[in-house]
Amino acid sequence: MNRRTRRRTGRSRTVFRAFLATCLLAVTAGACGDARPQTLVVLGPWTGPEGKAFESMLHRLDDGTGKSYTYQGTRSLRETLGAQLEAGDPPDVAILNSVGELVEHARAGHLVPLDRAATARAFPPWAPRLDVDGGRRTYWVPLKVDLKSLVWRKEGRPAGDPKWCVGLASEATSGWPGTDWIEDILLHRSGPATYTQWATGQLPWRDPRVRKAWTTWAELLGDRDKASIDRSLTTSYVGPRGLLDSLRPRCTHEHQSAFIRYVYAHERVRVDPAAGYLGGRAEHDGAYEVAGDMAAVFSRDPAARALVDRLSGERARTLWRARAADGLQPFFPEATDPQPTDATGRRIAGILTGRARTLCFDASDVMPPGVRDAFHRAVLQYFGDPTGRRLDELLGQLDTVRTEAAEDATNATPGHLPESGVCAPPGG
């Protein structure tokens, strides 16, 4: 060993001994340094290929900061998050699609306001500033978004005289494909202002405009025998291969969100705005119902807020699109964001960021969870018995749930969703 090497080795040993001494002195305070990287946990709704694409992007965000990230994907997101909160061990970041749930978490003090960099990407209707305890703050930011006001048909199939494919089963959340129908009909028949009042609990369920949306849905579906009704109630919203394939030749058109394109990734399909099918008013054709997956911080660790900032940034979105297969490439809220490369995805992105004049967040996702769940159940019951007497009974029950939810909100920690958090122009 030469003299230069001995000097370098001696300095290294001196530094190590100093570090070790510092650790030993700090042991009693629990402050001894840990050489292991800190791991932040992200809880989200994606599993299978979707989950793998997101997880791959997440791992590639590691840039030597000493932080590592792990992803937990589950189809029972609400139940999993609730159990973790009750156990006092929430994830650092959770990705939710329900604004109603996010508002409740903010009121309960579970959420940490986001940093300024992330809030710059959070705008209505995806992520409004929320009034909580007298302050206006941003508590979540969209990671991916979807366009809902769409109708799918096999290419070459005429647009007119649709025979509708309907699958309402979705495990614990069965019924939501029907709520999408009613929401879309109300939006295009009565407009964004009425839709916003209804979504935020200001408009009764027994209001004639809301009631008409339910009966219009039944009229559009047409007469159905018991076998057809039972089949729709027990068929998954995606079917074994997508409803256009699973239920043919009995149906020709499907009302479904943009996410369904992954089922038809290798099929020749046509996707159109839903407005032309719903009997709405022409002045509301530029309004579209949308949904989003929003990231919120449940940890006091500043690194969790920094992670949300990175997840909502251009690099993460570029990586995510690159790691996802055709049909699974996500949509993002602004025209300048990376967008899907498949033909169907590009068409939908063009509507979302170009053609649309008003975007209205999924009304049932805006509603308090109790109202939303009752809405899901009522849709299933009405689909099985679409009579006027049955509808009046169901709407009365929903009004009772709406009133109880409003009373609970009044008694809870102050906080409400502004009207701009439901409908807004694209890009803020």
Protein architecture, described:
- With 428 residues, the protein is α/β, with parallel strands linked by helices.
- The protein folds into 2 domains: 38-146 and 291-353, D-Maltodextrin-Binding Protein, domain 2, CATH 3.40.190; 148-289 and 361-424, D-Maltodextrin-Binding Protein, domain 2, CATH 3.40.190.10.
- 43% of the residues lie in helices and 15% in strands.
- The protein is built from 16 helices and 14 strands.
- It has helices at residues 3-26, 48-59, 77-86, 99-107, 116-119, 176-190, 192-199, 208-221, 226-234, 243-246, 302-311, 314-323, 343-355, 363-366, 369-384, 388-411, and strands at 38-44, 67-73, 93-96, 130-132, 135-137, 140-147, 150-154, 164-165, 253-255, 269-273, 287-297, 358-361, 415-416, 423-424.
- Strands 1, 2, 3, 6, 11, 12 and 14 form a 7-stranded mixed beta sheet that branches. A 4-stranded mixed beta sheet has the order 8-9-7-10. It has a 3-stranded antiparallel beta sheet with strand order 5-4-13, with helices on one face.
- Helix 2 packs across helix 12 (314-323) and helix 6 (176-190) packs across helix 8.
- The N and C termini lie far apart (66 Å).
- This is Alpha-glucoside ABC transporter substrate-binding protein.
- It comes from Streptomyces atriruber.
